[in-house]
Amino acid sequence: MIARTLIRGQPFIRAFATHAGPNTALPAALHLKTGQSFHGRSFGAPRSIFGETVFSTSITSCKNTESMTDPSYRNQILVFTTPLIGNYGVPSNKAPIDSQDVGVVMESEGIQCSAVVVADVAEKFSHHAAVESLTSWCRRFNVPGITGVDTREITRLLRDQGTTLGRLAVGVDASAPAPTPEQYWDPSTENLVDQVSTKVPYHLNPDGDIRIAVLDFGAKANILRSLIRRNAAVTVLPWNFDFNSIRDQYDGLFLTNGPGDPRHCMEAALKLRETLQGWGKPIFGICMGHQIIGMAAGLEAYRMTFGNRGHNQPVLALASSGSIKAGRVYVTSQNHQYALKLTDPFPAGWEPFFINCNDSSVEGIKSTEDTGKKVWGVQFHPESAGGPLDTMEVGAFHLWYMHHLSYSCRCSRISLASVVPTSSRYQRRSPL
């Protein structure tokens, strides 16, 4: 009888799951500026919000907590294409601050998206690391959610008509008429980077053997974690900090991901242009950082109709660099609404590095060999949180290059393995 119950599985296993709490859901409605409305029930915080409605192809709950805490999702209504969300629960977000971690397990201290849309939120959760349900976590950070809606249809709409402004109405607001077009609020009109960037510089792993300055446009924790686990001494700076005033103290510069319109950060691009002209050490940027590098180089940023979000975006390498080989397709993790325009000819001294296989948008740029500079930018997130591991070596190689350039004059021999260890203890520890 026990064996038969185990084979049948689900009823037996769910008996050991933790309840999310009493179901006191209020009615909820998701209104899109394009005129469609979806009605369901609420979970999380009982409040109504405006935001930018986007969808993500994150598959498992551990990746969903990473997405929700990624500052790149600031002020976005996040629609998950995966039908069941929350069955893993939410882990504790506390971690040490040392040479292996940066104080949090997820990508920031709290939820960054403004709301969550799911087809079916789990009323029970079961995982050895879980400490609370998705519902209670959202409630604790005052983030509303809606469940019981057809996320397939919402995703089709967003895929066909592009990212759309939205309104999540909860409680009595759910029965009120949908907002008029002029009532919708567009978060891209604000400098979201300024909201999520650090306000004061701070240091991590100060005894590391390579000094990296990080311009924080809304950095995920795993970017910093990846650097310190490779023994970098990291100084995190506000997005508009004048790096040129201290640049000779560092072996390299890293520009992070971030939310919103990069054109709000032209101040940073102009300062970086001065850096590019007068500083010969390596520079590497991802996502927003890649766009800032592109604008400093003379490229134009534009708002995409659809954007690229999710953990399965294919990109084609157009140039070789380290372990990256021209002609190979890599599967990447992305979250961006803006991109660099592909121009012909490209600015002098620059060349395309990657291109998106789906929409041909620019996924990476790099300085040309003849310039003697070592500058790279990629639109995707190479360090995999969350997402695939295909491009992990992009960041690892460039960190190694920074290290090698800094120490080649002092060391008679240095190996890639000694700088970027491949043993399991250096791999990112999953929160689940």
TrEMBL record:
SMART domains: CPSase_sm_chain. It is an enzyme of class 6 (ligase). One of its GO terms (molecular function) is ATP binding. CDD domains: GATase1_CPSase (cd01744). It comes from the Eukaryota. The keyword Iron-sulfur does not apply. One of its GO terms (biological process) is glutamine metabolic process. Keywords: ATP-binding, Glutamine amidotransferase, Ligase, Nucleotide-binding. Pathway: Amino-acid biosynthesis; L-arginine biosynthesis; carbamoyl phosphate from bicarbonate: step 1/1. It catalyses: L-glutamine + H2O = L-glutamate + NH4(+); hydrogencarbonate + L-glutamine + 2 ATP + H2O = carbamoyl phosphate + L-glutamate + 2 ADP + phosphate + 2 H(+). Its EC number is 6.3.5.5. Residues 26-169 form the Carbamoyl-phosphate synthase small subunit N-terminal domain. Heterodimer composed of 2 chains; the small (or glutamine) chain promotes the hydrolysis of glutamine to ammonia, which is used by the large (or ammonia) chain to synthesize carbamoyl phosphate. Belongs to the CarA family. This is Carbamoyl phosphate synthase arginine-specific small chain. It comes from Boletus edulis BED1.
